[in-house]
């Protein structure tokens, strides 16, 4: 019964949600999801509505009104809360320390890993072809080599990160 009702109402809900979404400043998918949730709650408590199409239209409009009210009350942040671009001295020092620790660990890597990772971290933003030419290796072996080097770097940094966190 529920599956048949969902199948029968799906095209109507898609059309109604698409028609109402622009006016409420929301996404059609969000409206659809809210109405499906309402329908499931209703089915659990009161059973199927006597006029499913009429109920669906009313539910879409009610959700659109709720969405408009919510949108009017929301205010954007002046700056993103997780915005790390501020240049306060503490952030600058911590970023520089992380960068130094990364560069030190890269220098301790075996083989041609230091040169490879230096090329990948280069501000020049080199392509794989340019990096392969600079290192004298084939472009096809660059990906596996990079993966191996990053694995080594991860293993090298894990004890340092774990010991810093443990100190508290």
Structure in words:
It contains seven helices and no strands. With 168 residues, the protein is mainly α. Helix 1 packs parallel to helix 3, helix 2 packs across helix 3 and helix 5 packs across helix 7. The protein is elongated, with a radius of gyration of 28 Å.
Structural class: mainly alpha
Percent helix: over 70%
Question: What portion of residues belong to β-strands?
Answer: under 5%
State the helix count.
Answer: 7
Mean pLDDT across the residues is 83
Could you name the ranges where pLDDT drops below 50 across 5 or more consecutive residues? none
Rg value: 28 Å
- Tertiary shape: elongated
Query: How does the major sheet shape up?
Result: none
**Strand count:** 0
What is the CA–CA distance across the termini? 58 Å
Order of helices and strands: HHHHHHH
Key descriptive features of the protein:
mainly alpha
